[in-house]
Design goal:
Length: 291
């Protein structure tokens, strides 16, 4: 534990106190901002760090540790917040849904009740969840969420930022500002290439997973035209409308079949559709021939 200043002339603050899991900033007008820091650690590491006997729980240990920091540093003359990467619930009956593209932490970390937050704390900022969730209003315990979508599990999800206004010895105020121009993730299914091009032209401000009903493999020219029409295409997925008919009519190739016929048969078996002319031309060029 130490007290020191890292004030630089070009910075509007100095670091005036530090401790394990704690930092204090002093602004130029001498206002104090105290932050209890609670980065993610799995349950095993928490037990090693906090629990001195087997009868103690992680919740009890964190409650004791955070209250010690708050009682030591967080008086009513400054703004006091807690910043953490944990799953926190207002009650045991609440449920929390983790994002698909994040490594789940419920199985390796304790779920923390809001009751362990020290009374000195005016605002709790939590990370890990991508969608804004307000767990408590007194004090505010908030997952601010991510300003952009990270996976298609967040498709059509509105994004926002949070602005917190806090003064010493007063409840913090939270303002949520929806991001009007954020590029949303959208799953779209189109009946044809032209249908897709028309839709893309009318929906430029998004990222899209595009499924197109088609009767053959997309040509390079078709793929190029789709990407040229929209800068936010993430996936292009062909949906072959006659795939069942192709499977039912599938037969083993004749022993006397040419190499071209064998290629067509293999491609049809592998992809459920016949190769287009461009692929056949490319196959012939690889063999040193031309159609």
């Amino acid at each position: 534990k130490s007290e020191y200043s890292l004030y630089a002339n070009d910075l509007p603050f100095s670091i005036t106190k530090v401790d394990k899991g704690f930092i204090e900033f002093t602004l130029q007008d001498n206002q104090k901002l105290r932050i209890i820091l609670a980065p993610f650690a799995n349950e095993f590491r928490m037990k090693e760090a906090f629990i001195e006997n087997e009868t103690s729980s992680i919740v009890e240990s964190l409650n004791t540790f955070w209250n010690h920091l708050a009682n030591t540093y967080c008086d009513s003359k400054g703004v006091n917040i807690l910043v953490g990467h944990h799953l926190m619930l207002a009650s045991q009956t609440d449920e929390i849904i983790e994002p698909d593209d994040e490594k789940p932490i419920q199985a390796i970390s304790a779920l923390l009740p809001t009751s362990i937050i020290p009374p000195h704390i005016q605002y709790v900022a939590l990370g890990h969840l991508h969608q804004q969730q307000i767990i408590s209003h007194s004090p505010f315990v908030t997952y601010s969420g991510s300003p952009c979508a990270y996976s298609f599990s967040e498709a059509m999800q509105k994004k926002s930022i949070s602005i917190v206004t806090a003064f010493p010895n007063k409840p913090a105020q939270l303002e949520t500002i929806e991001l009007a121009n954020a590029r949303m993730l959208i799953r779209k299914k189109c009946k044809s290439i032209q249908d897709a091009l028309d839709w893309l032209a009318a929906h430029q401000n998004c990222y899209v997973e595009l499924t197109i009903i088609h009767d053959s493999y997309f040509s390079p020219a078709e793929i190029k035209s789709l990407h040229a029409a929209h800068s936010g295409i993430i996936y292009i997925i062909p949906e072959i409308h006659n795939v069942e008919e192709l499977e039912q009519s599938e037969q083993l190739p004749s022993r006397n079949a040419s190499i071209d016929e064998l290629f067509v048969s293999y491609f049809e078996h592998k992809h459920g559709q016949k190769p287009n002319k461009e692929l056949l031309t490319l196959f012939s060029e690889i063999r040193g021939e031309s159609l």
